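Can't paste images in this forum, so I'm doing it all in text. The chain is below; anyone willing to post the predicted structure tokens underneath?
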Amino acid sequence: MTPPEELAQRVSSWPKPEERPVVEPPGEITFLGTAGTRFVMVTQRRASGGMWIRLPEGDFSIDPGPGALVQACRLGLMKDRRLEGVLLTHRHLDHSSDLNALTEAMVTGNRKPCGLVALPVDAVTGPEPILFSYLRSKLARIHLWADGPLEIGSITVSTVLLRHHGVECRGLRFSSPYFADWGILSDTCYFPELAEFYRGCHTLIADVTLMEKVRWIQHLSVPDLPELMALSHVSRLVMTHMGNGILDAGPENLAQALSTPQCLVCAACDGMTLRLPEPTNLPIEK
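Text version of the structure:
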């Protein structure tokens, strides 16, 4: 069988939208990769595929770094053809290299524009846009974070502008009636307004890259976490996007040492699946 015929056969066998399984609320997050820094990425000491969210509205890839499509296929996440969107916090390679691959996977086999890509302005403008122009016409929707919150069915995704080496980088907060608020804190140095934005979230997934604070590197470090936890009042903080120093020290041991009676700290690992928090788990304090 020739490759084109084989591809056509595969496409014809993909589930149609009405045949795709329904994900019960509140949904779940799978970590396709937990690598932080280019050094961990290029050695693949940890995979670097970002996150995959399964919601009743569909599946969404967040920050698809190198290997995101491969990891999603390996874990069986692509077989149901539920990918409805790609959400990008910023344009750096370890967060975006598979953006076009995942977008292609999302639109392939559809006769009319479909799917969503949400991303910063500098990912689609300027001298080096990272979303291929030929894919833009195949998308039903392109959302720029600068235009305001993103609405996906019953879900609202609001953002905060982070501070990360000269690019537009966004932290995300997800709100919906069927899960407690939760957030993703992408690459940034620490500043007090972060805690205010995430206050009242049940779960915060944070890119914690550095073992020790380095003044000229705009990444979160382990010493930043106690203040962030105390001021944001999150119930669960999940560390991901970890650098070599954290991996050498043992992320699980660090998480245990950082945990408090008010906030459980966890260290994500490649392939780990985390159930989204039920609405009844939401702390009272906002």
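The domain at 23-272 is CATH 3.60.15.10 (Metallo-beta-lactamase; Chain A). The CA atoms of residues 229 and 240 lie 15 Å apart.
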